[in-house]
Design goal:
249 residues, alpha/beta, Elongation Factor Tu (Ef-tu), domain 3, Rossmann fold, 2 domains, six-stranded antiparallel beta barrel, 15 strands, 2Fe-2S, metal ion binding, pyrimidine biosynthesis
């Protein structure tokens, strides 16, 4: 698969909270929850992988953290600017199969990993409104995307490291996997490892969306490999969503 960036229009680019931005682009492609786009800064050769937060009316919304030169360039974009993107990419959460066997679902997000869990929860509810979703979001200090996830959750719990909002501590302090049929998770690797270990102890199914540095997004460069019981896998092509039991942290 070749890397064919194409231009589209920026419809919105705003700071949600300190260092966290929401980017909305014009895009008609169908997107599965957990998929991502490679977004190319004008001053760079390589794109940045950013997960899809929401899709609506031929638009795609991303949520990204200001952490480097590329995202700093994104932060300076304004409505009406053009931007080069490539996507959607990767294998996301298989909503149809998830709701077929699971009615009580925990949606767990940490930091910027909360973004793809918005669309995940939304698509689950749209597919089967009778499924019960309890969302657990964890942050260092500032919170964001709360109202969005509450819209698609039957119950919502929040934790912050500083205690500025919700439970003071880790989001894993609030999660009891044995109460659910399946746990869906995205966030810092150390958090996901903890969630997977908790699920193993209770025998609960768990799917995780891995976040890795990427250069191509199509599985050619092997920059984003992760270890699994079946050998090294490409996060961009084989994932980013994996069975948590299969990943070797």
């Amino acid at each position: 698969m070749s890397i064919n960036y194409y231009e589209t229009k920026v419809l919105e680019n705003s700071e949600v909270t300190n260092g966290i931005y929401k980017l909305v682009i014009e895009e008609k492609n169908s997107v599965k929850p957990g998929q991502f786009y490679m977004i190319l800064p004008k001053t760079a050769v390589l794109g940045r992988p950013i997960s899809v937060c929401k899709t609506e009316n031929d638009t795609v919304t991303f949520c990204y953290a200001l952490i480097g030169k590329g995202t700093k360039e994104f932060a300076n974009m304004k409505k009406g600017d053009t931007i080069k993107v490539f996507g959607p990419l990767g294998n996301g959460f298989d909503v149809e199969n998830i709701i077929k066997e699971n009615k009580k679902i925990a949606v767990v997000g940490g930091g910027i990993g909360t973004a793809p869990m918005i669309k995940t929860a939304e698509d689950l509810k749209n597919a089967d409104n009778s499924c019960y979703i309890h969302s657990f979001f964890g942050f260092r200090d500032d919170v964001y995307l709360e109202e969005e996830i509450k819209t698609y959750s039957d119950e919502y719990s929040c934790a912050t490291n500083t205690g500025s909002h919700g439970h003071k501590g880790f989001v894993t302090d609030l999660l009891n996997p044995e109460e659910f049929d399946i746990v869906l998770c995205c966030g810092p690797e150390i958090m996901m490892q903890k969630v997977v270990n908790m699920c193993k102890e209770s025998g609960t199914k768990v799917l995780i969306s891995m976040e890795k540095h990427m250069a191509c997004g199509v599985g050619a460069c092997l920059v984003c490999t992760c270890k699994t019981k079946g050998g090294n896998k490409r996060t961009c092509k084989d994932g980013p969503v994996f069975d948590g039991y299969e990943v070797e942290f």
